[in-house]
Design goal:
Chain A is 55% helix and 11% strand. By secondary structure, chain A is mostly helical. Chain A starts with 13 loop residues before the first helix and ends in a 5-residue tail after the last helix. Chain B binds a DNA duplex (30 and 30 nucleotides) through helix 3, helix 4 and strand 2.
DNA sequence: AAGATAACTTGCGTTGTGCAAGTTATAATA
DNA sequence: TATTATAACTTGCACAACGCAAGTTATCTT
């Protein structure tokens, strides 16, 4: 018997809908790792600075997969590994993550490459185009 | 004795910093209510569609106040009430909330005024300028 | 003075989270 | 080929967070 992963539909407000999928402390960190740090496997997420617990990571990856934000495939070079990657829906979270970075950079003490920050600030559209570009290049398609 | 509200500093990554303040299912709904629906008092938040519990609401308002995102003052017309309002730091969450709305509108079934959606999509900068403008008008300063 | 309302606060049972340890499948090594 | 290591989970358990209902205090309203 499968455990129930989905739960409540609180309202159809778009902000609420987004929060029901991503409104927790970990999901967007996984998306960040995929989008900006090139992390792809379970252990890479596990060792990624914020020290997520393995059971939480497993559940969040499942949720993100169910939500169509990431996909999972076996690593062709090592069948023990799975490689996770962002879908289009996932890469479209780039604006959201970018705004989170800009907001934190403005109001809190954060650590971030200054040149990345400056590009976000001075040319957001270009920065986002680059993110998408890098993502498409990184697909290494068959 | 005060209860400890703050907890963990997991990392100084700007995305993580934002998530440590706003990474839960309720905080941004309160910000939404303040920013887009003109809600200002405890009971208005309490009856706002998603049915937050009163103890959770009280704690989140305290957290938002501690984080400098909202301020609280007595209602001059009714001393039983407190009026909450966004700070500059709070209104600067408008881009973030806007991205959440756009993302959800693109990938999920949501309910939202079509003209608001179209303005976000076609002229994000103008939409954000309007939000800020409305907020400044709504201050009813002394 | 009595009842209603606003903003919380408290109790309590349920659910989610954070370690640590265990499991299974695959890979690398002797 | 047998042994050990690694990747991706899974399980157990203690503790914290959440959700609901009821209670409290201060401030109107009548």
């Amino acid at each position: 018997m499968k455990k129930k992963i989905t739960s409540d539909p609180r309202s159809s407000c778009p902000i609420n809908v987004t929060l029901e999928t991503l409104g927790d402390a970990w999901s967007l960190l996984i998306v960040r790792d995929l989008m900006f740090f090139g992390r792809k496997s379970f252990n890479e997420f596990l060792n990624a600075g914020e020290k997520i617990a393995s059971n939480i990571l497993a559940e969040r990856l499942q949720r993100l997969e169910n939500a169509g934000i990431v996909t999972k495939q076996r690593d062709p070079d090592d069948a023990r590994k799975y490689l996770y990657r962002l879908t289009e829906k996932g890469i479209d979270l780039a604006p959201l993550l970018t705004d989170m970075m800009l907001w934190a950079a403005r109001y809190e003490e954060v650590t971030m490459p200054p040149e990345a920050l400056r590009e976000m600030q001075t040319n957001r559209a270009k920065f986002l185009a680059n993110v998408r570009n890098q993502w498409e290049l990184g697909l290494g398609n068959s």
